[in-house]
Design a protein that fits this description.
The protein is built from 24 helices and 16 strands. The protein has helices spanning 3-19, 24-38, 44-49, 61-73, 77-84, 90-93, 101-110, 119-128, 140-155, 165-180, 192-195, 213-221, 257-265, 268-280, 299-303, 318-324, 340-345, 381-390, 410-430, 477-488, 514-524, 541-549, 569-578, 592-600; strands at residues 163-164, 187-190, 200-201, 204-209, 226-232, 236-241, 246-252, 283-286, 289-292, 360-364, 395-401, 437-445, 464-468, 493-496, 527-531, 553-557. A 7-stranded parallel beta sheet has the order 10-11-12-13-14-15-16, with helices on both faces. A 5-stranded mixed beta sheet has the order 2-4-7-6-5, with helices on both faces. Strands 1-3 form a two-stranded antiparallel sheet. The protein binds one DNA strand through helix 2, helix 4, helix 7, helix 9 and helix 14.
Length: 601
DNA sequence: GCCGTTTTCGGCCCGACTGTTTTCAGTCG
């Protein structure tokens, strides 16, 4: 069973308890457990095998025990008993927007819908025949809304694509630049997953701090690249851009801007955790500020800075808001409730890597034609070196793809690489003004056998190599792990590039045994790449976090195929930050000499 | 049913929105 299937099972049990009018906190407990499981990055069953089931938040004695039974026997007797008391046809209806357990149950029982397979269609027919409006608690309007929900559901079967972070980020920046040109805009900031720098983004949300919301909203809906206005109210507006992207704007008064940012940046789980924490101190948090609430015990101890008579404390920025709770600012990238709140309570948040820490990178393709089987870059070495100089880099590694093995003999490959080295060295010496150090590297295919796609003698002309998978993506986990480890075994193979092979929204990566990969890398001084290319962002953030925990070294590279793409490095830095990486975890924050030392050990 | 800077009992995130209601229930993010 997948995590989503298990989470779904728990949600069904929660729904059953809702109908049976069980203790509502018990229902919430099941929903919480389901949320935890659906948000996991690891297979729940693997965690169970490792005995970590009960470490998960929201999974205690009872639910943990049932899950244990599920993994041992394949079924949970208690769950089956509970679910058997309800009509199975109610669950498909709960997929519809606006439907919870109660509405679904009421409708299937009132209308005698028995077949789960046809329940949605049967409900649509009932609505069309006007059979829903007379049911107690329903009316004409809700009958109409149900029909619309069913239509949306049918359309929504083809799920809407999310866009890679980099595209959303650029679009949002353009809108923000436009917004701050208005005199009444005090500040404009992205919200939600965009501000937290998730790998993919749905809609773009932006917040503006202003004392004149009306004027800013008018300015916004006249954005030059607007296609149409969806809605405009007193506190926000929504437009669709010419490229089809939806952009939501929210406005707030400057004195309340901090609470608003916190609330709409999320994540939801971060906010909930924060509110639970605050509640124990006698404080209630909402999107407008902090409310002291009446508590019987230990009032002075916990809320000594808060006057109970005050209705609402407001905050113009997030730093003050967090500080009021006795916490340091948590950067948006880590607000996922994966331990950041616990760490901040004991003032043990890591100092995350920053863009300015980057001193170079290793993965850039030039237009030098070494007849590879994959694509060449578009820019000459000179342009790349000049750009590196502009970025303030100390060094760049050029990692063109290896010459194709189909079209060349081993000795031809060696001589191509020899020629390339001579060519690069000549270019470098001709660029007197450029002080950037050059590393002559290569991105080498790891063949399905685990062998590298260049002969051993070729390494004489390389300072170091990046290795990566570009073929036979469908090997099983064990074979792929062996393949990668074999490829990484060469002493000059120092970096594993785009390690999962994923392409966002287009291709799942292959599977690897990360525990083995991490252990190998740590022992043999290999680094794993965080590839900044917009469609990749690979290593993914949660694996970065695991690598950091295992003290595995990482690099942040762009995989640039043109000099202009070197700016993409910031997205890799965002991923690293989401994975709690510090400067010390990243090889290319080291100055040249230290980095060189690491490459050679 | 879960959990602990109120700690093994006694609490449990918060407000907006909608539709059906005359004060609330259900759903959502």
């Amino acid at each position: 069973m997948t995590n989503q299937e298990i989470a779904n099972l728990l949600r069904q049990v929660a729904a059953a308890y809702t109908i049976k009018r069980e203790n509502r906190f018990k229902i919430i407990a099941y929903e919480k457990a389901a949320d935890t499981i659906s948000g996991l990055n690891n297979d729940l069953q693997d965690l169970w095998k490792e005995g970590k089931l009960f470490d998960l938040p929201g999974i205690g004695k009872a639910i943990g025990g049932y899950l244990d039974e599920l993994f041992r026997k394949g079924v949970v007797r208690h769950f089956n008993q509970v679910l058997a008391q309800l009509p199975a046809s109610m669950f498909p209806l709960m997929e519809l927007s606006g439907f919870g357990a109660k509405k679904a149950y009421k409708l299937v029982t009132s209308l005698k819908l028995k077949n789960p397979k046809t329940a949605v269609e049967d409900l649509a027919n009932a609505a069309k025949q006007g059979k829903i409006a007379p049911i107690e608690g329903f009316g004409e309007k809700s009958q109409q809304e149900i029909l619309e929900a069913i239509n949306r559901f049918k359309k929504g079967q083809k799920r809407t694509k999310r866009m890679p972070l980099a595209y959303a980020y650029e679009i949002a920046n353009n809108v923000i630049e436009y917004l701050v040109r208005h005199q009444d805009t005090k500040e404009a900031v992205p919200l939600g997953s965009l501000r937290r720098m998730l790998a993919t983004i749905g809609d773009i949300d932006i917040a503006v701090s202003t004392n004149n919301p009306e004027a800013v909203l008018d300015w916004f809906i006249n954005y030059p690249k607007k296609f149409k206005v969806i809605e405009k109210g007193p506190s926000g507006a929504t437009i669709i851009l010419l490229n089809g992207t939806q952009v939501d704007l929210r406005v707030q008064k400057p004195e309340m801007f901090g609470a608003m940012l916190l609330y709409f940046t999320g994540s939801k789980r971060h906010n909930i955790h924060l509110r639970e924490l605050a509640l124990r101190k006698g404080l209630s948090l909402n999107e407008y500020g902090i409310k002291p609430i009446k508590k019987t015990k230990n009032l002075e101890l916990s809320t000594k800075n808060f006057d109970q008579k005050m209705k609402l404390y407001t905050f113009s920025n997030e730093i003050d808001f967090y500080q009021a709770l006795g916490l340091p600012l948590m950067t948006p990238e880590i607000r996922e409730d994966t331990g950041e709140i616990e760490a901040s309570i004991v003032h043990n948040l890591p100092k995350l890597v920053e863009l300015t820490d980057i001193k170079g990178e290793f993965h850039i393709h030039t237009n030098y034609n070494l007849e590879p089987s994959h694509d060449l870059g578009a820019s000459p070495l000179s342009e790349i070196l000049n750009n590196a100089s502009k970025l303030g880099y100390e060094y760049v590694g050029i990692s063109d793809h290896n010459p194709s093995i189909g079209n060349h003999t081993s000795s031809q490959i060696v001589s191509i690489l020899k020629r390339r080295k001579a060519n690069y060295e000549q270019i470098l010496s001709s660029l007197k003004s450029v002080r950037v150090k050059l590393l002559i590297m290569l991105e080498i295919d790891i063949l399905p056998s685990g062998k590298l796609a260049v002969p051993d003698e070729a390494f004489e002309y390389l300072d170091a190599a990046i290795v990566s998978i570009h073929s036979n993506f469908h090997l099983d986990k064990d074979s792929m792990t062996k393949r990668v480890l074999s490829g990484l075994s060469h002493p000059k193979a120092k970096i594993l590039a785009h390690p999962t092979g994923r392409l966002l929204e287009r291709r799942e990566g292959y599977e690897l045994d990360w525990a083995k990969i991490f252990a190998f890398c740590k022992e043999r001084n290999k680094a794993i790449e965080i590839n900044s290319y917009p469609d990749r962002l690979d290593l993914p953030d949660y694996l970065v976090r695991q690598a950091v925990d295992e003290k595995v070294k990482l690099t942040i590279d762009t995989d640039s195929h043109a000099a202009s793409q070197m700016d993409l490095i910031k997205y890799g830095v965002f991923v690293a930050r989401r994975g709690w990486a510090t400067k010390d975890d990243i090889i290319n924050t080291m100055p040249y000499n230290k980095m060189k030392e690491w490459l050679e050990k």
